Amino acid sequence: MPARKIILPGLLALLAIAGCATTGPRFSEIEAKIPAVPADQGRIYFYRKSIFFGDGLRPPVKLNGQEVGRPVPDGFFFVDRPPGDHVVSVSTEVERSLPLTLAKHEQKYVRFEATMGVFIGHISPELVDKNQALPEMSSMHYVGTDLTN
Questions:
Q1: Is 108 left (phi over 0), alpha (psi -120 to 50) or beta?
Q2: What is the C-alpha to C-alpha distance for residues 142 and 15, in angstroms, rounded to an integer?
Q3: Is residue 142 within 8 Å of 77, Cβ to Cβ?
Q4: Residue 35 has what DSSP assignment?
Q5: Regarding beta strands 75-81 and 141-142, do their DSSP bridges make them parallel or antiparallel, or are they unpaired?
Q6: Which tens digit of pLDDT belongs to each residue from 17-43?
Q7: Distance CA 70, CA 58 (A)
Q8: 3-state secondary structure (DSSP) of residue 4
């Protein structure tokens, strides 16, 4: 019995720490350093708020079938793509997808939400308005590729 009292809290603490292991500068710290959207492209920002449930779920985020990143809790990243129709998808027990149309120099914001599943949770993409996305992203950490490239 005493071993349970020690092990269970220890495991819960470890899970909590692992869920908060996001590194990288905050959006508010690097916003001015993020390169401008190329004139012939659009930009899609991906982000995920941190909640206790499902923080360990980080399935690949795919854009038109190609992996572009992972939905890290309290993290964001972005990709630049040509104008046109695109599909964001993520798969755990089930695949969730979000079609979107991107215009030249346009910026779109995709937020990932975790929900309960039968065996594991689901991660779902949702298109969010810029006025809602930017305040939500301001304290999040950049988890994309090196901005100096």
A1: beta
A2: 21
A3: yes
A4: P
A5: parallel
A6: 344 445 799 999 999 999 999 999 999
A7: 6
A8: helix
What does the pLDDT look like over 84-103, one tens digit per residue?
999 999 988 788 999 999 99
Amino acid at residue number 119: F
Rounded to 5 degrees, what angle do the CA atoms 128, 130, 41 make? 95
Beta partners for residue 87, in sequence order: 99
Asked if 129 contacts 136 with a C-beta cutoff of 8 angstroms, the reply is: no
Question: At 122, which helix (H) or strand (E)?
Answer: strand 122-128
How far, in Å, CA of 118 to CA of 111, rounded? 22
Ramachandran sector of residue 51 (left: φ over 0; alpha: ψ -120 to 50; beta: rest)? beta
The contacts of residue 11 (CB under 8 Å, 6+ apart) are none
pTM (2 decimals)? 0.81
Residue 139 half-sphere exposure, CB side, CA atoms within 13 Å?
A: 3
Contact between residue 102 and residue 83 where contact means Cβ atoms under 8 Å apart: yes
State CA 146 to chain mean position distance.
16
